[in-house]
Design goal:
Elements (H helix, E strand, L loop, with lengths): L1 H25 L5 H22 L10 H26 L4 H8 L2 H13 L5 H18 L11 H24 L6 H20 L12 H25 L5 H7 L3 H13 L5 H19 L13
Helix pairs in contact: 1-4, 1-9, 1-11, 2-3, 2-8, 2-9, 3-7, 3-8, 4-7, 4-11, 5-7, 5-10, 5-12, 6-12, 8-9, 10-12
Amino acid sequence: MRLRGWLYIGTTACVFGLGVVLAKLITSVLNSFLISFLALFGGGVLVAAYLLVKRQALLPSLSWSAWSNMLLLAIFGTALPLLLVIAGFARTSAIIGGVLLQAQGPAAVLFATLWLHERLTWRQVSGTGLLLIGSVLVVVQIGQAQVWQGGGVGALLVLGGALGYGFGLIPAKRLVGQADVLQLSALRLLLGACFVVPLLFFQSSLIQGTLSWSIAWTLVLYIVTSYCVGYITQQAGLRFVKAWEASAILQTIPLFTAFFALVLLHETPTLLQVAGGVLVIVGGVIVARGGPTPQKPAGEQL
């Protein structure tokens, strides 16, 4: 059963890595807020349509505490991080964004520690140090301090989004067993889309480039992979592994991102960025796998 969980989360890491590259392609044409809405709404509608085909109820029967976790997941663990990440992708490279995005793993452990009032272990402290050092190496290249004039802002936005995604693993884990995986995924995406809608009216321009069939198909592929397959496999995997175990697997996101960036964008990382990426991945794995023994509130397990 644990192997099934690792395979589910591994699939999530793969499609999220691909999503980083696809999002990078789309941000050249569409506003980040519009992309976020289309991704969440489109993914939610597709999952809901599949539920209708299966003749399954769209809305699960949730308790008040489960609804609060669902709102936290949809807004602070999905929609808001997505807005930050998409905006960041428009200002930095796919490889840098992919490496920083995997910081959601260590963030999940840290949020679990704060949420359950647990203390960090020495492994988590050392892993966090490697993560920070590696992140600096990824975004700062020797002789290129100007990276902070544009790419640095994008990197910070992606990092902020990664923290949100890490937080999202906590309510997602708490919702395991509360409803069907497809119901939770559809509700998560549609509630997130509702959060983004009002923000669209404050944007000066939603389309900032020339639309083409290539961009349209890229958007469709982005929605199907990251927001149908990715979120469904993540929620399914959390049934079999703990949140911090899932975060350990998600450290492979930058590896998939680098692969797809090389294939689709023809980007080439520098040796310094490669070294920084290795440190980030190693540090993230140490933090995630060295997590504290979680407490078990009544009826819940992290």
